[in-house]
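Title: Comparing notes on inverse folding

I've been comparing how different people in this forum approach sequence design from structure. To keep things fair, I'm posting one structure and asking everyone to reply with a full sequence. Here's the target:
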């Protein structure tokens, strides 16, 4: 089966060399020139591996890596001219699987991509089906079907409300700031988005019957953001 790569690189000369090499090797390649474009492309399709530059317009590579890793375990390779150890450590801490410094050998990059793809295909082969998650207090999530049940009755969520719940629930106890939630769910960087997040969280809580003062699912961490505290059944 043809492997699909997402290349996020704003340098057209480097991007064309990398893209053309992988196309010759029978890969399917999508090329994005900004961080936001890359994030939109990632959400719009399924990829087997992502190559990300760090110095990107609109959304930097670190933020893009963080957003991708929150959503998927897909192999992620950083390609960057920034060679400082701190940058490499930060990239790997955000979930990147490899870091290739520019200028790089195109043959070496190809070998690293193939190595990550072999691991990814083995991982997918043993991955368990976890589309359904049951929590105490009557909440059941069918993630693949975009369906939420509460005490055996379906809760009608908007797409953004579902995406918020899924992000929080898939990373329990992790505190997400309003900035992070808006950036991840709405794919935008905008101070006006903080109110949007507040409104959607309020609506989500109301539909889940989850009071602010004694929450069962979504807890406000004052001055920091929100986290999911629901316990697995």
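Reply #1:
Here's my take.
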């Amino acid at each position: 089966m043809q492997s699909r790569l997402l290349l996020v690189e704003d340098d057209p000369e480097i991007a064309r060399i990398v893209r053309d090499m992988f196309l010759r090797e029978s890969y399917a390649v999508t090329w994005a020139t900004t961080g936001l474009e890359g994030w939109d492309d990632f959400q719009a399709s399924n990829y087997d591996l992502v190559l990300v530059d760090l110095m990107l317009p609109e959304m930097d590579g670190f933020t893009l890596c963080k957003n991708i890793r929150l959503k998927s375990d897909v192999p992620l390779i950083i390609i960057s001219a920034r060679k400082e150890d701190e940058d490499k450590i930060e990239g790997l801490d955000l979930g990147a699987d490899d870091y290739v410094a520019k200028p790089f050998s195109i043959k070496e990059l190809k070998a690293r991509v193939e190595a990550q793809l072999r691991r990814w295909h083995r991982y997918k082969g043993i991955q368990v089906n976890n589309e359904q998650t049951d929590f105490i207090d009557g909440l059941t999530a069918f993630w693949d079907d975009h369906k939420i049940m509460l005490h055996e009755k379906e809760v009608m969520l908007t797409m953004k409300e579902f995406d918020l719940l899924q992000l929080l629930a898939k990373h329990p106890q992790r505190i997400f700031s309003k900035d992070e939630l808006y950036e991840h769910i709405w794919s935008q960087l905008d101070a006006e988005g903080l109110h949007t997040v507040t409104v959607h969280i309020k609506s989500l809580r109301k539909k889940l019957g989850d009071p602010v003062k004694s929450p069962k699912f979504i807890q406000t961490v004052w001055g920091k953001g929100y986290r999911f505290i629901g316990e697995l059944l």
